[in-house]
Design a protein that fits this description.
The structure is a homodimer.
Chain A: E1 2-8, H1 36-42, E2 53-58, H2 59-68, E3 77-80, H3 85-100, E4 105-110, E5 114-116, H4 118-134, E6 139-144, E7 155-165, E8 168-177, H5 182-191, E9 194-204, H6 205-215, H7 217-220, H8 223-233, H9 238-242, H10 249-252, E10 260-264, E11 268-270, H11 278-281, E12 290-298, E13 304-316, E14 321-325, E15 329-334, H12 341-350
Parallel strand pairs in A: 1-2, 1-4, 2-3, 6-10, 12-13, 13-14
Antiparallel strand pairs in A: 4-9, 5-11, 6-9, 7-8, 7-9, 8-10, 14-15
Helix pairs in contact in A: 3-6, 3-8
């Protein structure tokens, strides 16, 4: 059976002042009236029932996530006592699900991406699950056909077609590439056989656990003890989890496996890496302003503006800015500086403005 | 004796979102922790006692002004039932003061300008009062030596020196000039004998009333009836006041008088016409950002930013913007568009966002 594993542990300081230590990006309603996490769960509706969805997150967010997602059994919202990157998180999920469903297949999904339309996404997931039933020993990734020479993503080099599932081809992965420089990214875009690695994976729980035993045995070996502690106490002891190797599933497992498959996504995908990315996913006015909430623009163009429902934002003459209002703080920056919000958060930290973190 | 007459009736939409229909510019703390009106009153401290200060204002603001200035006898905060420009306002003040003090001299002062330092200002007012005691039949204005070819002010053409008072020369006014075009303003600046008309006047109440009888008899004739109504009912009947001619003191009286004097100001003066003007009167950081309240700037330069004490404003990379946060609205505009805030207020009105007006 197909199980959903939503990774919702990310901190993320690139959405300050909306995001805070206790309110990370996946808990923000950046695009619709629902948080990105709620959208990620809703995206599975009809394909995977709530009873087969696990959400892995940081202990700081688990309470709010259980409140927001009451349909998900509360012991399936799993609180990591500390962040150990994706290999540990996915390993833990695989171990939990392998116990419940020895032949279970996982769809591993980030909580904070924007994916549209839902039908294409579900079709692709179903095809991926079918491909895995044909090739149960493989790990499968989703590749997003690039629309620009992005330097912020890892790339997947698509190899030969291996087979078809539900009318979609799946391919062997020839190589994984780290975030490229601009020139390399341009070449990838031109060549056409390079895809963005969206961090969406499909595989059997058992297959992943075998992979971990081969490539990260110090992780695989500790998972049974962690599960046992979780069963006994309802929580994962921090020292046990902190002892796990901190490595990504890409670097720790996928890049070391010979048989990794990739399906090309036919859905729209955006990881919404910063406020500037919202211009790709929010509806705009004639002047290209993208707004959430009450925004009035007078000869202003190309801005991303977020005001909320009880505050009026007024823009005159400005271009290509990000303006974000929250109850206690407002950000005004150039779109091109949107990534620098992280620096700003560091400034707040160094100036001990803790109430704003 | 010298009486202070502070004109505090202006509406002013150029400081939205700080200014609102019920909170005009003179009631904003734009530069210091005190409102401009409170600063205007404080500026007279030691020269004119509270008991000889009148504040003329719009009925909508009179309550708040009495609260803010409890030292001023409340019947000396005079509520105009409607705005009839400065000739009516100053005529009314002159009539009131002439009754109290037949030889009284008025210093007529706008409530919403920034003037520094206080000592120079008081010295200049004292010299003006002395000049009027020498030339009791004259009206006297203050001229500000221009520091730039401003097109937004009226100009005074300074004529020959008439005399000295307390070590300061006073001059005859050769002509009053309306707001000039850019070329004319540049010529005025170059010629050196043109001064900005700051709207600060000194004259005997009786002299002004005689002038009104000559130049605006339909105004002068109605003042006794208005005073009588005010005495009897505590308020000015709207129909009486609305019947007064609506004309400025400059156009209606000063420009028609032969004997007008001018003293050159040796104080710093700014009428703070828009948020952009705040860069001339607020202290700045090394990058030329002028801030009031909690503002953090990261590679931002030349901005005017107002946040208040309980809200953090964060700027990254932006230049030459005006950013103003208030509880229910935030403005982001280019400094060069600061005057267009008026248009924005019209937009709010046309979109019936009355709670923001």
């Amino acid at each position: 059976m197909l199980h959903g594993v939503i990774m919702a542990g990310g901190a993320g300081t690139r959405f300050w002042p909306m995001s805070r230590e206790r309110r990370p990006k996946q808990l923000l309603a950046l695009v619709t009236g629902r948080t990105l996490l709620e959208e990620a769960v809703a995206r599975l509706e009809g394909l995977i029932p709530y009873g087969r969805i696990h959400v892995l997150t940081n202990g700081m967010y688990a309470g709010e996530i259980r409140n927001r997602l009451p349909e998900i059994p509360s012991n399936q919202v799993v609180a990591e006592p500390c962040g150990r990157d994706t290999a540990a998180c996915i390993g833990l999920a695989s171990a939990m699900i392998a116990r419940l469903d020895p032949d279970g297949v996982l769809a591993v999904l980030p909580a904070d991406h924007v994916i549209e339309p839902r039908a294409s996404f579900q079709g692709a997931l179903a095809a991926a699950a079918r491909a895995i039933s044909q090739q149960p020993g493989s790990l499968l990734t989703f590749g997003i056909p690039p629309s620009r020479p992005a330097t912020g993503y890892g790339y997947i080099e698509r190899g030969p077609e291996i087979g078809q599932a539900e009318g979609r081809a799946f391919f062997r992965v020839d190589s994984f590439r780290e975030k490229p420089d601009a020139q390399t990214a341009a070449r990838f875009l031109e060549q056409g056989n390079f895809l963005w690695n969206a961090g969406i994976f499909v595989f059997r729980a058992r297959t992943l656990l075998s992979s971990l035993e081969r490539h990260l045995p110090e992780l695989a070996d500790r998972l049974p003890l962690i599960l046992e502690s979780l069963d006994r106490t309802g929580a994962i002891p921090e020292p046990l989890y902190a002892a796990l190797p901190k490595v990504s599933i890409d670097y720790g497992v996928l890049e070391r496996e010979r048989e990794v498959l990739v399906i090309q996504a036919d859905f729209e995908w955006d990881d919404v890496g910063s406020f500037a990315a919202l211009e790709r996913v929010l509806p705009g006015d004639a002047a290209g302003n993208r707004a959430l909430g009450r925004v009035l623009a007078l000869d202003a163009a190309g801005n991303v503006a977020i005001a909320g429902a009880d505050h009026q934002l007024a823009l005159i003459g400005v271009k290509d800015l990000v303006v974000v209002h929250t109850a206690d703080a407002t950000l005004v920056c150039r779109k091109q500086d949107a990534e620098r919000v992280k620096e700003l958060v560091e400034r707040l930290r160094s100036e001990q403005l803790d109430e704003l973190l």
